[in-house]
């Protein structure tokens, strides 16, 4: 070994296996490329000399000058040397240093030749300074940048007197991470690394990891401590940070060379051309464009290099979605939807990554704010407990602060929050129909289902940074499939759903003693349930044993293919039965190799807001780029805590108000949210569906506002039933007075006024000591006076609250669908808010006008210039099914019409059709006889065209558009207005919106008429504006107009020819077209994969039969839609209308007209059961059918079917009431029951425990019920009251079933009657309103 000026000569022997034990790279300088040593492999020949360092330039090899050669020629010279031969390298030490050899005497007395590298100029000195400061206070990133520059040497092993001496024996690195050898104070990233021996303690097999030699210096470990187990061990970059050009160049070069080396037919010329191209791009823009092939390779390698992933055996099967052309948050949203759909694949999950544009300057980043695409929200409840997945509490707050409103359930999917190009974030609800979730059930424990747990099927990590080739992709979400224990932990971890104790108790385990290992037993069963549920639903999932085996196989592959596999033992070993899996016994080496996925700070903590957020939650988290002065961490922490506590105190001081709603068609929910809007002004309000409310919290509430409709025939909506029952249970605890109580909530409301008064004394007593003694409340009930039990459920709730001792703050409100429902609601809500403020002495500072305005849903109320339509360039129209799913926030499925049969002869003058739909095996469309199918129709083309013809010109009706709303925000600099997307409708054409999403046939509401009035042309007609304004005031005039003409929107446009309606008005203000329900008319066993509906086609003339003909939207659509056309739908379970479990019980079915629909499914089911022998043990009981048919006109279809059913033994008796038969008097089903089969009915209900099913319109159902009561009185000797009670008990015990279609027959008469009653009340409520 010799030494000249900054040159040293080093000799070694080339080895068979690792050659010289170094890797080289090219550096271009002064017009020629030099061969520079990049890495020295620990234990290799170069390392063993102790003289070779990364950064040295190879000047000559065995006497041949390599500096005059090209890079390829120079490396070829070294490559051509035969193993076993002596090699002499002349090396030039790093720039800015003086390198030479020196003989030193050690303290042992020995002499040794060592290499000395002494700083030679300011940069060298600086480097040394850095060297001393490393690991202490110096900015590590700055060091890394310096280190990564190839011309600055990195030192290893020992510092003496300012010189760096390489003289410590090989392999003895003290206090560093044992694998990478990282030792923050002395060892650099490219320190020589020798193979790490890794042992498998089960089979004693040993492997050597060499790959770690390529590891980057981003290991967090430092002297004396290993930080591997930290969740996020690597430091984050500060907001606004971006890589310096040199760093990008260096990593790009490495990547491009690696990529070309990976290609089977790699061509050096190609590679060099590409590299030149990349260099030019980086020089110009600081970044460059990866080809699709490069990006795919990088994405796969990132997965392959992820030390924490156990499922990497699949790394080469990753689908890349290249979304680098996306520029907006909406574009990101659409790309993500495509990703989710593709990955879900009906449960056969596939792995994918979507890559959005890379970071350019740190200020235009693309980010997915969600940690995963799919996550459940978390809501803090008044008692401090959390509803939902607690891990997402902070993010849920952020979403809410951005304007998202969850449904308040335990499994509310959070929206996607996306920021594109550094813009402020936007949120998007994920369409329900693309999200697959699995209800968690257990193969052995049936009760598991009652826990009501579900989980989503695609785990998609969306907030990591994808680091490849020097580029940083800040949004590159990727997804795979679950390992069972991941979901198991989500359910059981104490900071997650934490169901461990609940399950333990249900399992009957001793949860008081740790030593019973109950937690372990629970965890196993929960994991069994998870695997079982996913598998049962054909969703890909892997158990941890199989995952462990696959990982061992992967390790073996990787050892063979690239000499190692970075693996984080802490994460790879499953959280359950760890030592039973082989990975537990396998030593692993954890290090960091690029391309890679990196953790990023939560987006809401580092986002550089374009517009300073207003919301306190966002402000609390917002990153301040220019803090007024630097505070210590402690100060910052204190300040944050203080601000948060102030906020909390302010909120805590407010009275907590819980707004509960129950709804069938959504009106109560939207009224509840208006309530929420007004109460927010002075109360700490929250809103949730009754079904999601934990009734045990009720006693601790301060103020409860209930908004609910009534359904069926005086019954609660489905999602209010459990709440109603629970209240009833509270009021009448079982066995409290020795009597068995009726379970009917409805009946609570039917107490007479006299008995109500009699109860007052008792109520006052109860109030003082009742369970809800500390609660105040108000109820607004929605209903329709067309029904005998008007607003019954709302009244029942009101009564129960009062009986339980709660104090009513405002008399129960009633909103009649037939007459001024919205107005009644607004009047009531204003009153309730005012009285609540008075009662609690709050809201003195509230601007009542502003608060009341919120009842108009002011944010999105109409004003000219407030909305605009924008064309979406190139954006495709959202598929209707997807659009409807988003709009209705539920999973809709497409079925197809396969046939349609007219059931009535043409002369009948009416139409009823049997529509048969194909479900294509969709799981979501499985049903049992008695269930309903909800259908989403389209408006008639004729009506849509009539509207389009009358709209303001300028918008192409077939171009894809979006609506934007101008939002005003107060800021320090005044009022700021911005156009934000109004996410009401998906991207679609005007025609599609009017045809599929919006209701154009329901008479416009008073509010809409007022908006229309603004767009009459006063020059041509001031009368029209005045008229519309008068109608827009609501009240009697409006109700008369609506009742007489029931005008559709096209008719209004026709009646007011001066109207010039802006399309944005309709798109933003028309109500949403609702689904229609149909009782399913088929048995799934007789017609697998089909749904049949028996549909009465609605047509009527307004103005007492003299007006234009109106056609019901859905029934006419179903009657005219082409075969094979798609019908969006979902199934609604009608659990109170299913056949009795015991088939031997006799059954009476009454279904006049289309009421026959569900009954057909019953007899068909029984036909199948008889044929299959299912009923052989219990011979089927009598099945009597009572129908009303127009025998002369009725087509043969149904008659043939009922005759066959009778032959098969399914139907015992069929009784037909004749209606509209020429020359006969009309008979009704109730006449048949009373006249022909009274004894049979008596025996069936009284003696044989039989079931009664009544289906059709509400008037008929009421008549049938009264007829059966009469039979009990006349033939059963009961009193009227007893008979009524008897039928009610039958209903409570699920023996008397009603399937009510609403008011379908005699609509006009019934409405007229009801209206008369309603109008007088409306007048009263108008008066009440003005007194406020
Ligand atoms: C649980 C359930 C099950 C049902 N099952 C069936 C079934 O199996 N088969 C079936 O055919 N239907 C069934 N229906 C009724 C069905 O859902 C629809 O209401 C019906 O098909 C009409 O819908 P449409 O869209 O055609 O009419 P719409 O466009 O909804 O028009 C109907 C509306 O028009 C108005 N109207 C009707 N007649 C007059 C009149 N003479 N004067 C003034 N206004 C009038 C009323 O406001 C009425 O609500 C069921 C309903 C429910 C709730
Ligand atoms: C099938 C059906 C049954 C109904 N039954 C009743 C009833 O028994 N009593 C009542 O007051 N209203 C009844 N209604 C009217 C609803 O309560 C009314 O439409 C209400 O506005 C719906 O509110 P929601 O959208 O919140 O469910 C019924 C409506 C339908 C369609």
From TrEMBL:
SUPFAM superfamilies, sorted: Ferredoxin reductase-like, C-terminal NADP-linked domain, Flavoproteins, Nitric oxide (NO) synthase oxygenase domain, PDZ domain-like, Riboflavin synthase domain-like
Sequence ranges assigned to domain PDZ in this UniProt record: 9-78
EC number, as in UniProt: 1.14.13.39
GO cellular component: dendritic spine; sarcolemma
Keywords from the UniProt entry: Calmodulin-binding, FAD, Flavoprotein, FMN, Heme, Iron, Metal-binding, NADP, Oxidoreductase, Ubl conjugation
GO BP annotations, alphabetical order: nitric oxide biosynthetic process; regulation of blood circulation
Membrane topology: Peripheral membrane protein
Reactions catalysed: 2 L-arginine + 3 NADPH + 4 O2 + H(+) = 2 L-citrulline + 2 nitric oxide + 3 NADP(+) + 4 H2O
Molecular function GO terms recorded: calmodulin binding; flavin adenine dinucleotide binding; FMN binding; heme binding; metal ion binding; NADP binding; nitric-oxide synthase activity
Pfam family for this entry, one: FAD_binding_1
Location relative to the cell: Cell membrane, Sarcolemma; Cell projection, Dendritic spine
Cofactor details (free text): Binds 1 FAD.
Domain of life per record: Eukaryota
Occurrences of domain Flavodoxin-like (ranges): 657-833
Annotated positions binding heme b: 309
Cofactor(s), names only, from the UniProt record: heme b; FAD; (6R)-L-erythro-5,6,7,8-tetrahydrobiopterin; FMN
Chain ranges of the FAD-binding FR-type domain: 890-1140
Protein's job: Produces nitric oxide (NO) which is a messenger molecule with diverse functions.
UniProt protein name: Nitric oxide synthase
């Amino acid at each position: 070994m010799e030494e000249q000026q900054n040159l040293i000569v080093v000799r070694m022997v080339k080895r068979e296996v690792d050659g010289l034990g170094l890797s080289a790279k090219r550096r271009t300088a002064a017009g020629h490329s030099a061969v520079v040593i990049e890495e020295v492999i620990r234990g290799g020949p170069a390392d063993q000399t102790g003289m070779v360092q990364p950064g040295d330039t190879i000047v000559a090899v065995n006497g041949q000058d390599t500096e005059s050669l090209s890079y390829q020629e120079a490396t070829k010279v070294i490559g051509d040397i035969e193993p076993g031969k002596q090699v002499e390298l002349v090396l030039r030490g790093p720039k800015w240093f003086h390198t030479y050899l020196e003989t030193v005497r050690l303290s042992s007395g020995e002499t040794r030749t060592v290499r000395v590298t002494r700083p030679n100029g300011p940069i060298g000195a600086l480097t040394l300074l850095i060297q001393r400061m490393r690991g202490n206070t110096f900015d590590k990133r700055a060091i890394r940048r310096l280190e990564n520059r190839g011309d600055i040497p990195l030192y290893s092993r020992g510092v003496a007197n300012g010189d760096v001496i390489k003289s410590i024996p090989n392999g003895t690195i003290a206090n560093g991470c044992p694998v990478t050898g990282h030792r923050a104070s002395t060892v650099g990233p490219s320190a020589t690394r020798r193979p790490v021996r890794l042992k498998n303690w089960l089979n004693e097999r040993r492997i050597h990891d060499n790959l770690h030699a390529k590891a980057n210096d981003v290991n967090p470990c430092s002297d004396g401590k290993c930080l591997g187990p930290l969740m996020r061990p690597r430091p984050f970059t500060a907001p606004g940070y971006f890589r310096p050009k040199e760093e990008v160049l260096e990593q790009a070069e490495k990547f491009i060379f690696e990529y070309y080396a990976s290609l089977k037919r790699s061509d050096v010329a190609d590679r060099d051309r590409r590299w030149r191209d990349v260099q030019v791009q980086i020089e110009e823009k600081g970044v460059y464009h990866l080809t699709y092939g490069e990006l795919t390779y990088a994405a796969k390698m990132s997965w392959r290099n992820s030390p924490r992933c156990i499922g990497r055996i699949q790394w080469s099967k990753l689908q890349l979605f290249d979304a680098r052309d996306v520029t907006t948050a909406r574009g990101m949203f659409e790309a993500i939807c495509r990703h989710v759909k593709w990955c879900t694949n009906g449960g056969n999950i596939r792995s994918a990554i979507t890559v959005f544009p890379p970071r350019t300057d740190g200020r235009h980043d693309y980010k997915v704010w969600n940690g995963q695409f799919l996550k459940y929200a978390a809501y803090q409840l008044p008692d401090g407990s959390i509803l939902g997945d607690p891990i997402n509490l902070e993010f849920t707050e952020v979403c809410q602060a951005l304007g998202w409103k969850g449904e308040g359930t335990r499994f509310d999917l959070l929206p996607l929050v996306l920021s594109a190009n550094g813009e402020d974030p936007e949120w998007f609800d994920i369409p329900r129909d693309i999200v697959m979730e699995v209800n968690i059930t257990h193969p052995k424990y049936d009760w598991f289902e009652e826990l009501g747990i579900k989980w989503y099927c695609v785990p998609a990590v969306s907030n990591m940074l994808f680091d490849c080739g020097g580029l940083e992709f800040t949004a590159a979400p990727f997804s795979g499939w679950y390992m069972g224990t991941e979901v198991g932990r989500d359910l059981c971890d104490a900071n997650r759903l934490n169901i461990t104790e609940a399950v333990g108790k249900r399992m009957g385990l001793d949860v008081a003693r740790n030593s019973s290992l109950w937690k372990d037993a629970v965890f196993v069963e929960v994991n069994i349930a998870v695997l079982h549920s996913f598998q049962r639903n054909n969703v890909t999932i892997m158990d941890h044993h199989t995952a462990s085996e696959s990982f061992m196989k992967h390790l073996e592959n990787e050892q063979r293919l690239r000499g190692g596999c970075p693996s984080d033992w802490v994460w790879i070993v499953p959280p359950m039965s760890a030592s039973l899996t082989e990975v537990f016994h396998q030593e692993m080496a954890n290090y960091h190799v690029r391309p890679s996925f990196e953790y990023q700070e939560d987006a809401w903590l580092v986002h550089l807001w374009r517009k300073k957020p207003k919301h306190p939650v966002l402000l609390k988290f917002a990153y301040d780029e220019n803090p007024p002065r630097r505070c210590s961490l402690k100060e910052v922490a204190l300040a944050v805590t203080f601000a948060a506590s102030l906020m909390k105190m302010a909120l805590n001081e407010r009275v907590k108000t819980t707004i509960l709603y129950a709804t069938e068609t959504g009106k109560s929910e939207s009224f509840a949210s208006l309530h929420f809007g007004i109460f927010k002004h002075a109360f700490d309000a929250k809103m949730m569906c009754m079904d999601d409310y934990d009734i045990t919290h009720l006693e601790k509430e301060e103020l409860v506002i209930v908004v609910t409709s009534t359904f069926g025939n005086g019954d609660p909506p489905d999602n209010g039933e459990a709440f109603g029952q629970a209240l009833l249970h509270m009021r009448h605890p079982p066995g409290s007075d020795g009597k068995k109580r009726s379970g009917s909530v409805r009946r609570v409301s039917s107490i007479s006024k006299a008995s109500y008064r009699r109860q007052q004394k008792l109520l006052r007593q109860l109030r003082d000591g009742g369970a809800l003694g500390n609660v105040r409340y108000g109820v607004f009930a929605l209903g329709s006076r067309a029904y005998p039990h008007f607003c019954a459920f709302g009244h029942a709730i009101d009564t129960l609250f009062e009986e339980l001792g709660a104090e009513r703050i405002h008399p129960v409100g009633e909103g009649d669908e037939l007459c001024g429902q919205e107005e009644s609601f607004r009047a009531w809500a204003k009153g309730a808010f005012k009285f609540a403020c008075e009662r609690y002495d709050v809201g003195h500072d509230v601007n009542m006008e502003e608060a009341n305005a919120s009842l108009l849903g002011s944010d999105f109320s109409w004003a000219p210039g407030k909305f605009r339509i924008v064309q979406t360039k190139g954006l495709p129209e959202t598929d209707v099914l997807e659009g409807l799913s988003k709009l209705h926030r539920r999973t809709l499925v497409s079925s197809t019409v396969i046939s349609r049969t007219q059931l009535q002869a043409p002369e009948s003058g009416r139409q009823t059709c049997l529509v048969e739909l194909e479900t294509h095996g969709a799981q979501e469309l499985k049903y049992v006889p008695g269930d309903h199918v909800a259908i989403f129709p389209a408006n008639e083309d004729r009506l849509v065209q009539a509207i389009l013809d009358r709209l303001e010109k300028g918008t192409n009706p077939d171009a894809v558009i979006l609506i934007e709303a101008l939002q005003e925000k107060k800021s320090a600099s005044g009022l700021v207005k911005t156009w934000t997307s109004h996410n009401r409708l998906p991207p679609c054409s005007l025609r599609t919106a009017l045809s599929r999403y919006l209701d154009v046939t329901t008479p416009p509401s008073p509010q809409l008429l007022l908006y229309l009035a603004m767009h009459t042309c006063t020059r041509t007609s001031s009368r029209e504006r005045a008229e519309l304004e008068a109608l827009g005031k609501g009240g009697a005039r409006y109700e008369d107009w609506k009742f007489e003409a029931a005008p559709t929107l096209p008719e209004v446009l026709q009646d007011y020819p001066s109207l010039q309606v802006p399309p944005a008005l309709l798109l933003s203000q028309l109500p949403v077209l609702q689904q229609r329900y149909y009782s399913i008319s088929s048995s799934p066993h007789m017609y697998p994969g089909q749904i049949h509906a028996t549909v009465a086609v609605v047509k009527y003339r307004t103005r007492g039969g003299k007006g234009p003909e109106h056609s019901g939207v859905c029934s006419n659509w179903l009657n005219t839609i082409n075969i094979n056309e798609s019908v969006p739908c979902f199934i609604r379970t009608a659990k109170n209308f299913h056949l009795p479990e015991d088939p031997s019980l006799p059954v009476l079915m009454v279904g006049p007209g289309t009421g026959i629909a569900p009954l057909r499914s019953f007899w068909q089911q029984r036909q199948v059961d008889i044929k299959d022998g299912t009923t052989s043990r219990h011979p089927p009981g009598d099945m009597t059918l009572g129908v009303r048919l127009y025998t002369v006109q009725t087509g043969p279809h149904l008659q043939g079917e009922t005759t066959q059913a009778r032959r098969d033994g399914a139907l015992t008796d069929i009784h037909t009431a004749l209606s509209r038969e020429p020359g006969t008097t009309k008979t009704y089903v109730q006449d048949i029951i009373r006249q022909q089969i009274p004894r049979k009915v008596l025996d069936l209900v009284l003696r044989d425990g039989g079931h009664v099913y009544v289906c059709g319109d509400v008037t008929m159902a009421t008549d049938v019920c009264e007829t059966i009561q009469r039979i009990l009185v006349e033939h059963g000797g009961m009193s009227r009251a007893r008979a009524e009670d008897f039928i009610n008990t039958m209903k409570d015990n699920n023996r008397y079933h009603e399937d009510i279609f609403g008011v379908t027959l005699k609509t006009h008469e019934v409405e007229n009657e009801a209206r008369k009653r309603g109008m007088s009340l409306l007048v009263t409520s108008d008066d009440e309103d003005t007194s406020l």
